Amino acid sequence: MEDQTTDVAAGMGLMGAGAATGERGEVVVPDLEVDGILASSESPAEDLEQAIQTFLAGAGTGVISVSRVVNPLLHVWSIARDADAAAPVESLLTVLVGRSLTTSDELKETMREVRAVLASAKPLARV
């Protein structure tokens, strides 16, 4: 299990400098690095875009095991929730509960939907 957890975390871009694997195979990241990842910008929209890019870069192509993308998808959801753009991710997570496979196209489409919700939620500039 340890090798699988490390491989998935590394493949999804979640293991950076200083990250290690704990006794039970979980990824252990120093607090400072986690703070840098989660609070890297001033805007939830910028944090969400960074999370989406990282997620898509590590998700792979073609047919993908749901178990490989659930945790990274939950990470995107947590940031999308803060930016009031979580509905598309929630819909995908609900659909994936009953499945063991997804596709890169489905993941990309969901991230496009998240970006569209985010864009429609931005307030208009005052003149």
How would you explain this protein's 3D organization?
This protein is 62% helix and 8% strand. Strand 1 and strand 2 form a beta hairpin. 20% of the residues are buried. The chain starts with a helix and ends in a 6-residue tail after the last helix. It folds into two domains: 1-39, no CATH class; 42-127. The protein has six helices and four strands. It has a two-stranded antiparallel ribbon with strand order 1-2. It is mainly α and 127 residues long.
Strand content: 5-15%
In helices, the fraction of residues equals 55-70%
The secondary-structure element order is HEEHHEHHEH
Quickly count the helices: 6
If strands are numbered along the chain, what order do they take across the biggest sheet?
A: 1-2
The mean pLDDT is: 76
Which structural class matches the secondary elements? mainly alpha
Low-confidence stretches: 1-21, 27-39
Oligomer state of the chains in this structure: single chain
| Domain tally | 2
Radius of gyration: 15 Å
